[in-house]
């Protein structure tokens, strides 16, 4: 408890002096800063589904929802398809997908919002069909420079067939690709991950357009372990939070939750693979838009970027200049001179707990194993010592800073509010935010 109290006191003293110091600093920097572009925070979701795959609404309706709900960018990421070809969908299928009792049919809402002739229908073999609009068709309806941006994406959804009826889902989002990528085959889970990521990055290279890949929901059907995430070095991002109710953010008795997955993967990367830690994204993975289970608005990223342009957003994310959120907004997060500082944008009546977690350099490397239930693809899982993903400090309040002591492999901050999530994806969920791991660069050995 003592370190916590100490840190709290020091934080208060420092924030008082910092206020005056930063004012002086900003005054003296005004001239020099005028040539540097001012960075702003942009809210975006990079993982969402539509009728183009297994979602239950039209892409324009989904885009409309995100635009009206305070997002600045959106990447609809359907399974193994880009919204770039002619596709008609049967009205019956649209109705079948919509399971919320008493909800207005999706087609009626679509017609009410966009009307005819935008909404195109036809009769084919006695079946009413609706044409799904391509991204390039509806993009101009929504995009506004500096205000709203659509990014083309796909959820590259591969499987690794362990044996008959044991197909491990390996889902990786490919953001800003220009052509659809087919799911690869591979000789192992990690091989399929690697081939998927290589295909995404190869396309980025070939087109000269920056791409971003994030590995999705590791605990969906308990598919990916922290060891998988650690070993596949082609990957730099994973979903620390995904709003789908079946992704087991919290893990269970024998399988680690997302927080532990992240800390184990980061620790293994820095100590065994000489590789940077993973950055964590927050996403919706929404499939349903009429009041059902897999709803939009649960998780997102806040990216600090020079401008709202795809290249700039991706560059900022690659540089780790973003955080993941499921409701908590940060005024600022900085890492300077060995100090990680987090400032929450406080809401009236809401309290915040800021936890600084990481792994000490001299961590206890002892591991044990635990047998898994029959639904797991592996007979057992590795359990790491409590040093991996250890809490270095806990601060109650909207502002906190952690001074690295030089003994940390990395540090990251988890901010938890006491406000219940308005659209929870698991029991007792409260709003949170996650900053990226910092302080790890010096842990990487130079390689030739
Ligand atoms: Zn998925
Ligand atoms: Zn998905």
Notable features of this structure?
four-stranded mixed sheet, disordered N terminus, 448 residues, binds zinc ion, TIM Barrel, single chain
Describe this structure in words.
The chain has 448 residues and is of the alpha+beta class. It folds into two domains: 3-84 and 134-332 and 424-429, TIM Barrel; 86-132, no CATH class. 26% of the residues lie in helices and 30% in strands. The protein contains nine helices and 23 strands. It has helices spanning 2-33, 59-68, 91-97, 106-114, 135-142, 189-207, 226-231, 258-272, 310-318; strands spanning 40-45, 73-74, 77-79, 87-90, 121-124, 127-132, 149-150, 153-163, 166-175, 212-215, 237-242, 279-283, 300-305, 322-325, 330-336, 339-344, 352-360, 367-371, 380-384, 390-396, 399-403, 408-420, 430-434. A nine-stranded mixed sheet has the order 7-2-1-13-14-23-22-17-20, sandwiched between helices. Strands 3-8-9-10 form a four-stranded mixed sheet. Strands 4-6-5 form a three-stranded antiparallel sheet. A hairpin with an 8-residue loop joins strand 18 and strand 19 (380-384). It is globular, with a radius of gyration of 23 Å. The relative contact order is 0.13. It binds zinc ion (2 copies). The site of one zinc ion has 4 residues, from loops.
Radius of gyration: 23 Å
In percent, how helical is the residue content? 25-40%
Number of domains: 2
Task: Output mean pLDDT.
Answer: 93
User: Strands of the biggest beta sheet: in what spatial order?
Assistant: 7-2-1-13-14-23-22-17-20
| Assigned CATH architecture of the largest domain | Alpha-Beta Barrel
CATH homologous superfamily designation of the largest domain? Metal-dependent hydrolases
Bound molecules: zinc ion
Low-confidence stretches at least 5 residues in length (pLDDT < 50)? 1-32
Overall 3D shape: globular
CATH class of the largest domain: Alpha Beta
CATH third-level topology of the largest domain = TIM Barrel
